[in-house]
Design a protein that fits this description.
mainly beta; seven-stranded mixed sheet; four-stranded antiparallel sheet; 11 strands; about 0% helix; about 45% strand
Amino acid sequence: QGQLVESGGGSVQAGGSLRLSCEASTYRLHCRAWFRQAPGKEREAVAAIYTGGGQTYYHDSVKDRFTISQDDRKNMVFLQMNNLKPEDTAMYYCAASGRPYCVGRWNAGDFFPTWGQGTQVTVSS
């Protein structure tokens, strides 16, 4: 699976934007996702993309605000986060599945054997 390295977290006010990046050390056609975990809450899937066909999947709470994308070489995955809200505050993790599909499993943590170290996103009101 290789390694995943996230970057781009930070602190913003509500309504602001951040762009997270996740670089993989190897290129594969598989499902890549962003998860987040806030203190005292369970980890939840935010968005996913199948690097082979570009299909994307989103948690209902971030639809129309977040966009997941990949670069042309398909080893970088991005999460553009707009109109951020205080409830988006969490540690965000990049994950890679190694499986050639996302459908039906993109929001299951155990579908992803490879994880990054996480990057903190803090949104103040």
